Amino acid sequence: MNGSLRVAVIADRDPAFPPHLATDDALRHAAAHLGIGVDVRWLATEPLESDLAEVKGADVLWCAPGSPYRSLRGALAALRHGREHSVPTLGTCGGCQHMVIEYARHVLGYQDAQHAEYDPYTSTLFVSELTCSLAGKTMPVTLAPGSRVAALYGRTEVEEQYYGVEEHRYSRWR
């Protein structure tokens, strides 16, 4: 092994939620491929409101699917710390949506920026519900020629299915 990576996964982990299991699998698979160790810590959002010690000790943050989180404030505090301290951060699905809210509030100055899952009637929605859901649909995806992902697929045109969960109804950003 060439070292170890400390990954803080921001989400209220649910072992019955397939994307959370896939997150663990993806991290183990990537670490094995890179020949490094990985120390994965799932961080519930409520304690992050007042204690960012685990976030501060991480090499990487991953804001995982599974919104709405128990604490929007806790998730945003962890994401803000990562952004302000140049910690590499990935947000997938609802996690990416929370990154948009954090940026809108703390960089763009929209203090009341909100996600429709938390308050659909707010005056400043940055993430709102789609009028049609992509969940469960299979659609074409064009991969960049010469890209690593195109090489892995062995072609540049593929079809992929959107995972059928409720949070995929919230994908439009202001």
Kindly, what is the distance between the CA atoms of the first and last residues, rounded to a whole number of angstroms? 43 Å
Which class best fits the helix and strand makeup?
alpha/beta
Q: Spans with pLDDT under 50 lasting ≥5 residues?
A: none
Quantity of strands, as a count: 9
Nearest-angstrom radius of gyration?
17 Å
Binned strand content: 15-25%
Strand order of the largest sheet: 2-1-3-4
* Main β-sheet description: 4 strands, parallel
Order of helices and strands: EHEHEHEHEEEHEE
Q: Count of helices?
A: 5
Mean pLDDT: 88
Question: What does the overall shape look like?
Answer: globular
Helical coverage, percent range = 25-40%
Structure description:
The chain is an alpha/beta fold and about 170 residues long. The protein has helices at about 20-35, 55, 70-85, 95-105, 150-155; strands at about 5-10, 35-45, 60-65, 90, 115, 125-130, 140, 155-160, 170-174. The strands form three sheets. It has a four-stranded parallel beta sheet with strand order 2-1-3-4, sandwiched between helices. A three-stranded mixed beta sheet has the order 5-6-9, covered by helices on one side. The longest helix has 17 residues, at about 20-35. The mean pLDDT is about 90.
List the helices and strands and how they pair.
Elements: E1 4-10, H1 18-34, E2 37-43, H2 53-56, E3 60-63, H3 72-84, E4 89-91, H4 94-106, E5 114-115, E6 125-129, E7 138-142, H5 148-153, E8 157-161, E9 170-173
Parallel strand pairs: 1-2, 1-3, 3-4, 5-6
Antiparallel strand pairs: 6-9, 7-8
Helix pairs in contact: 3-4
Give a brief outline of the structure.
The protein is an alpha/beta fold.
